[in-house]
């Protein structure tokens, strides 16, 4: 490693991205506290302080930070993506997810509580499935830069995508009125391949206001996931066209995975709760 790649006192104090240990005075990018390995750039990002408004604001300003972060995720996800790759606190991300789950909770007023409980549990299970999948995909050739991939341990990727899954759940706060988008994999396949079989939620593929709102929610969420992935794999060796294609693929993959989880987990959870109570 060249001398210019190592941190200096002029930089923000670099920290271990895994445990936060201050790395000043060390010559190799390996944490003596937790033994994690990483790049100096990742250590500088971890030491630059929180960039996400929800984590940056304290006290009475936390509500303003919550609103600012929600607006960024929903309306300008590329801005949120640039902030997120600079580092964030997983604890804050989980708190943000808990607040976003209030959307389905408030929806209990208009829908059976079993449906809203099933959706909340389905969302958590979706995050548990999506997190390791994205952490694995970013490590494939064509994803993270080879140097970054070699120095970034798998647990760091899991932690990153778990936090991102929590923050990109911001769209759930908009589900309090119309509920979550009832997109099933069988319905999506039936429309794409123009199958003659009956759609379970045919109203989702109409021009009704509820359908437009649901597709807008899905589009906003997929765009946020794609923007974060694009920012995550950005590097000098990554062509812009490939980065765009990969981010679009991640957005589409998220949509298909969502439809599969809703159909095979969410629907069964709702039936089980409805029969139980």
How would you describe this structure to a colleague?
The protein has 277 residues and is mainly alpha-helical. The protein folds into two domains: 1-49; 52-276, no CATH class. Helices cover 59% and strands 0% of the residues. The protein contains twelve helices and no strands. The longest helix has 37 residues, at 240-276. The protein starts with 39 loop residues before the first helix and ends with a helix.
Main features:
277 residues, mainly alpha, 2 domains, globular, disordered N terminus
What is the total domain count?
A: 2
- Large-scale geometry: globular
How much strand content do the residues show? under 5%
List low-confidence stretches.
1-11, 145-151
Largest sheet: none
**Total count of strands:** 0
**C-alpha-based Rg, rounded:** 20 Å
**Percent of residues in helical segments?**
55-70%
What is the number of helical segments per DSSP (H or I, 4+ residues)?
12
On the 0 to 100 scale, the average pLDDT is: 82
Structural class: mainly alpha
Q: Tell me the span between the first and last alpha carbons.
A: 63 Å
Summarize the structure.
With 277 residues, the protein is mainly alpha-helical.
